[in-house]
Design a protein that fits this description.
The chain is α+β, with helices and mostly antiparallel strands. The protein has one domain: 4-Layer Sandwich (Double-stranded beta-helix), CATH 3.60.130. About 20% of the residues lie in helices and about 25% in strands. It is built from six helices and 15 strands. The longest helix has 15 residues. The two termini are about 25 Å apart. It binds succinic acid. The site of succinic acid (SIN) has 9 residues, from strand 5 and strand 14.
Length: about 280
Amino acid sequence: MSYDAITVTAITPRIGAEITGLDLTRPLSNHQATELGAALVEHQVLFFRDQALGLESHQALGRHFGALHVHPNVPGPPGYPAVLPIHTDATSRRIAGEAWHSDVSCDEQPPLGSILHLHTVPPIGGDTLFASMFAAYEALSPRMKTYLDGLTATHAGEHVYRSHNERDAVPESGRAYPRAVHPVIRTHPVSKRCALFVNATFTTRINELPADESRAILSYLYEHAARPEFQVRFRWWPNSVAFWDNRSTQHMALWDYFPETRSGFRVTIKGDRPV
Ligand code: SIN
């Protein structure tokens, strides 16, 4: 793929590219947005430096790629329901996204992608790891691909969000938690490549298998999906941005910087039902 409105520099052979030549605080032209969308599908996660996004420009950036998603469990700042605060400091009892996951895969229509901007980062540590689920799928044996073809998995939010709310002392009453059934292997709606679509955070069960077999297969798939050669690891600076394709990646945030502060906001774009 060639680009003329943006400069795209791949970081690993399988996943991740740095984008330069773009000011994300200003509205994108249609051509820039089209090329950014194409780079996202090709490289699966895009990284940007020196982008002092405010909440308005952050939301405007997200809207170039679709309607914004409102998180089912975490409210946004006043007036910004579709903005997800990501904040850890010396008083935190947990961080967001510490285990491998694709965002809100428990929704019937999980997000297309997420755009995370951090304005405050620790002097060292706090990296985010991203893994290509295209690469994970493609590296499965032909027999395993055949075995997984047509299977579905349940993705649940309840165990995840209940435990977050308990640790954050957020009242539970009256909450409804999302739950959905998705194919174990999904086809990317744009590239048509196949991606492994189960994750250790939200997936609870492969529906067509006995419970013990489901546990064993999921455990194998989680270990396989986390192989280092499918990954890229992002070192944050203040005002860095990561934009990931949630349909073809998983990610996890490292909490190796306690008691330092790491803070910013995520805007998430609505997606389609996986097929
Ligand atoms: C998330 O899962 O969206 C958080 C990622 C991060 O803080 O690096």
